[in-house]
């Protein structure tokens, strides 16, 4: 008994083992060294060195690093153990990289589906505030367009084309740490007046907290998400806890931003010559009293670059990020904090602030695992209520000065509306977002594991658009009683429970993985929109209760419920033949009870043919896989309560009673939109995987289109929700190429190239000619095609535009004359990324390219308005006359003709990142300095501004340059 009491709980030996870990190039930092069977572990430092005091005499050390296979070393009598990973280890491990496929993980070499991936390294190199920006130009089949250069602006994403006839129904499903995250807009039309799109909740996700982003594209990868995977799935995994001693990281940066590609507009002389010529065509020599620019009211010698004055400022960026992480194999943690602020290119003190906190707690023993992930972010956005881009590009260059001699806003004797006055009107937005997920798993048997995900999201958004009386000309005599505010408040909360049972078994040359699970989700959205007016003072505009008039425009609460049961069977024979089958049954509250449930599924297969005896020893082909998949996914993206009769309150009470008016018709018969997906792909590795190539052909056919079906006006309704018997097809090719160009002790250079071709067309639509869409769509052509008049030239006799008269009636007025179809989809797009490292210096560069041969260029002004113009449109211009109505009519016809089709193709230097790791003798500090740039340079024939962002009435994406420092200790 005394002997037992004298025995310590752990047989502490006190023996210390030291050593270094390196690969074939250099020493490795961050390698986890663990004593097997214990929680005793350390990490290698910047020089690859480690020191570990053992707990047992018969210890075995485990060496773990992401890029290499796990290495085990018996200690025996050694006190120094050096580990060296070889090129072969690295090559093997690259194919063993585990990809997040959502409900399960799969080795890259064994996946049967189409999954693209970016990691924290690529994300960290880009000075952006929205994580979707980090995907631009990096993934085949993923087309992302920035919708605004304003702070907190949104992005449009299409995965393998547009599947739905409704442009707003093509968003993929977003999953944040296992939680479905709604990307539905949270803003309102009135309150978001300075943007081309509503506020996106995706802007609340902090890119600095993201570990990886996987995009699931084909049926095999997306079918397990059933009805919500029709347009692809975007999986966002945030950073997890790290094993080892406590590590602290501080990263700070500052930068500047300017608009890209300002328009080349006329100077005062060119502008006035144009104006005088226009009046000369009318035979007018005495200019009208309201032609202030040329009748002498305004100074004809004055010249102002309004783009420089109104949108030519410099935005400033400041960011600080901190991280604390540590722990052992049993418990580890990560806490990240980020503060980001930026100003705008507009005049004034407008600012965008964002704060974020990321917390990860991970506990694990032999059977039980608990992982908690929490993310909280807060945004405060203060912007002008109206985007000044339009007025900056249209205002006459000799317009009056902004301020008078007394420093007050200059109204120039009521001859213009001072653009600075609109800065008094503000767009104020505050968004609080919380996502929390707890994963619990228990290993019942070595092959059998039960897991459940518990998720919760809470989003609160409030938008205000203020219109104070100070924005109006003082001569109007308006006071605070004419001030008004528009408010939009949104609260969205969601919970999800996903129990799951997985079974993995290996018998000789057979490997089975079986997964069954369920999903139960509930989402509630409250939205309140109101207008307030007649305030006692402009200082009270943010206190809506002080307004004498308050009008509720919308007060609604919607509830969305979703449940599903799913299963997956994966079978691998001899490590070279792979079969993957998924099935799912979904139920959605967005359909009537008789159509609420539907079944989806997919089958995928892969053949690793380089494991066959006849080729496995090939000296030049190191890896080869042929894979294919077919399946059905779906969509319930139609909105809530669309199948029910809907009513709204009337705006004008009758005898003091507020009534109800119908706004939507009952239709219980519409059902799920479906997408049938087919893919065949080939993946190859050459020269020990120094050169990797893949190509994929896909065909997606989306039917039972969920749309708003137009109704005759005599019904009192504009449309009702239902299914159209139309089928939209997207098919195309995707190519990726990766190469390790140089791999030596001091040099490393890799290249990644992706190229995508997508062709979209309306495959079928029974009775299209008799439908409301007869003049919108054409069978066999893209749903993004538009009908145009055929421009034939300028008549040399009268200098007017001429168009081809297809119906021969002598007029260009009939829809029969507007028959030329032009596809506005890009012909192809892609990117080229290079990563070069020399010792401690890293250089990363990304080029993005888009072949957009056909883009409709629409001048912002209608015929005859007084605006500045481009020096060179690149298209012929006819003279304008106020007396000849045909000239004005021809100008408007030109805007809808082949003459307005321009080439908006471009090659853009999307991103550059230069990083230098400062070598210090004191290994406690690991300083790093960096310089980054975004949207730096563009080559394009497009003359309408930025070719990516083609809405020239709104602020384009900014060119940004950021520099900073990072300290790890």
From TrEMBL:
A Gene Ontology cellular-component term: cell outer membrane
Topological type in the membrane: Multi-pass membrane protein
Residue spans of biased composition, Low complexity class: 475-487
Pfam families: CarbopepD_reg_2, Plug
Domain of life per record: Bacteria
Subcellular localization: Cell outer membrane
Main subcellular localisation: membrane
Sorted UniProt keywords: Cell outer membrane, Membrane, Transmembrane, Transmembrane beta strand, Transport
Residue ranges of the region described as Disordered: 468-489
InterPro entries: Beta-barrel_TonB_sf, CarboxyPept-like_regulatory, Plug_dom, Plug_dom_sf, TonB-dep_OMP_SusC/RagA, TonB-dep_OMP_SusC/RagA_CS, TonB-dep_rcpt-like
Domain TonB-dependent receptor plug, first and last residues per copy: 109-233
Family: Belongs to the TonB-dependent receptor family.
Protein name: SusC/RagA family TonB-linked outer membrane protein
Native source species: Empedobacter tilapiae
Highest classification ranks of the organism: Bacteria, Pseudomonadati, Bacteroidota, Flavobacteriia, Flavobacteriales
